[in-house]
Amino acid sequence: MKKTLILLTLLCSNLFVMAQYENAKQVFESPKLKDVVKSHKLVAILPFQVTLSYKKQPKNFDLDANKQKEKTMAASIQSSMYTFLLRKAQNYTVEFQDVEKTNILLKKKGLTDSLDLLTKDEIAKALGVDAVISGKYENEQSRSEAGAIVTTVLFGGLGSKTGSGALTMTINEGSNGDLIWRFFKSMNDGVFSSSDELIDRMMRKVSRNFPYTK
Known about the structure:
- By secondary structure, the chain is of the alpha/beta class.
- Strands 1, 2, 3, 4, 5, 6 and 7 form a seven-stranded mixed sheet that branches.
- The longest helix is centred in the middle third of the chain and has 25 residues, at 63-87.
- The chain has a single domain (2-206), classed as Rossmann fold.
- It has seven helices and seven strands; from the N terminus they run H-E-H-E-E-H-E-H-H-E-H-E-E-H.
């Protein structure tokens, strides 16, 4: 009984820390944001930069496989964000370029693997858009998914966090590349988290500050 109480106390403490971490967010708005977005009609969403790391590197870690996983997740987050915005298109003052078209244009122009070497206005010009949304997701796995699943089964989800991360979303003006909006959010990673769930959680926090909301 004593051991159970200690375990429950530790789990509750962990949940409190997780909640505090999850609530950490920062929003930046350029002084000229409201004036600039009035002229925007078409906005592109770029593949997100993804970094996946491990507090303790797993056995048989494959660096190439991890890089491929990062690349796959980058495209998945991009697609999830487009789907989310498309579902609520009536709520926004701009249209969002189909991400398939965005990626094809980037590939045709040989820019897919060199986005970090280009300014945002150069990318916007190549895509024919008024602004670009880009972002970064960094995740550090602190425990195995199997361990989290066991905890979920035993305690109904208490302490099922498998890692922690941070998601940054930015909007840059297409004509000059200036940063006009930035959103940063700490994100806990739970069991079976998908890119759709990740974006849904983030956009619920973004909705009040998203500059294209009517």
